Q: What sequence folds into this?
């Protein structure tokens, strides 16, 4: 991963699949001011998965909910604050 700018932090992006039976982790960089994941490494050893259950980012031991930017409006109505990311 590259060197961080002042408004960025390293994190771990986690996606939970198939009723919690699969959890994938990827290193990421988050723009903490814009609340946007700006870089995600591809997860290694990905099994076949079908149903996405949850997505979040861990920064300095704190868990933050995450969603795709296209789902942001609905997600905010249900969950409040969020870190968004783009594919």
A:
């Amino acid at each position: 991963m590259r060197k961080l700018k002042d408004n960025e932090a390293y994190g771990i992006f986690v996606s939970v699949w198939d009723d919690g039976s699969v959890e994938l982790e990827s290193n990421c960089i988050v723009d903490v001011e814009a609340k946007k994941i700006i870089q995600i490494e591809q997860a290694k050893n990905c099994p076949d998965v079908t149903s996405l259950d949850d997505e979040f980012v861990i920064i300095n031991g704190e868990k933050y909910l995450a969603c795709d930017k296209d789902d942001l409006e609905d997600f905010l109505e249900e969950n409040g604050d969020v870190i968004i990311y783009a594919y």
About this structure: The two ends are 17 Å apart (CA to CA). Residues 72-79 form the longest helix (8 residues).
